[in-house]
Task: structure prediction
Amino acid sequence: MSGSLSSSKGRPLWQGRALALLGIILVAFSLRSAVASLSPVIDHISEDFPISSVVAGLIGAAPPVCFAVFGLLTPLFERRFGLERVAVAAISLIAAGLVLRSLSVDSWSLLAATTVVFAGVGSGNILMPPLVKKYFPDRLGLMMTVYSTTMAVSTFVPPLVAVPIADSAGWRVSLGLWGAFAFFALIPWVTMLLAGRTDAVAAPGALVKPSFDEKAGDDRDAGEVATGPIVTSPANPKVFGRLWRLPMAWSIALVFGASSTLAYVSFAWLPAILIDVGGVSASDAGLLLSLFGLMGMPCSLLVPVLIVRFQATRPVFFFGIACGLVGLAGLLFVPTVGLPLWVAVFGLAPMLFPLSLVLLSIRSRTPESAVALSGFAQSIGYALAAVFPLLIGVLHEATGSWQVPLLLLVGVLIAVIPAGWIAGRRRTIEEDWERRYGRW
Result:
């Protein structure tokens, strides 16, 4: 795949589909900025009305819950109304929720607005990759890289600027600002719908990459693999039912759950933890959360290459676990010494997320089984991830410190080690079944 925006293998990215390109980039930015922009200004919000640890935990649990629920509902809406119309509805929810969040008058209205935001984000997570495939089938690898890189940028930019804006203009402006980006993301898609330009595809003869087949040696590039399989239809019930009996399926689900747990606990609680145990200001805590998010960018680009091309699943997994444990140990025992270092090292632990997404692709032989494995792993993984932000808040409120919550995260990392070892076996779920029960 060429790294340029045009090549001899297909038409330029912008030819006849510039609006789709702009729309995908703007939506990708909104999907993550909606998650990363709230926790850095929680202290500012608390000056206007109290936010208990339980409510803060519920806000932290909202993303995985909404992602799980709307991940199941969105394909049903898409089949009835079409990709673009449902995408417009999802982006509208994000924009409206972000504006409502900036107008919150108490902790429960803040929670309600946040739920609206993540209902839209949950749908957008499902819709954007199929939209990429619809409008850019000849540039899948490049566009998936653009999409995932934009999401990585939007993970570390909001914490970087949220507190300075809140200091100068107030937390309502700081939160509402991200609603403007979501509103602008609506414009390309609404324009395409009104103009009837929703049938854009690649030029005749353009190269469309086949799906990944590990046994056939297909060497799909990192940008495409990093997105994981796209669930646009319900999984085959027969295939899905078999997964409950397979250690490989469970191991991937647990790795996915651990990676999601680290991410959503960090976005919900890391600034508060750094303020309390590290003695930093709210502004510095926001910068450190930005550093945490920034560490995910090289991981999202390198991890798929290491796994697909070099079969380095276990080395990547154990390196991520080690980074998580070292970072947590630093926060537990010497938080005031080298705090940025501990945050940066801990920020490498979420490399388990791109790792788990790649495994969803390469641990299945067919698209049908990939869809089933993706649904299975995401259902279990998001269910686990929804529990821990709330549990962390309850433990903090009960103990009055962050020691027990941080030890809980240490326990999560240690507990998932056997699952990572099993997921590192070079076999598909079909092979796992055949070894145990005979023909798939």
About this structure: Residues 1-8, 200-233 have pLDDT under 50 and may be disordered. The domain at 227-440 is CATH 1.20.1250.20 (Growth Hormone; Chain: A;).
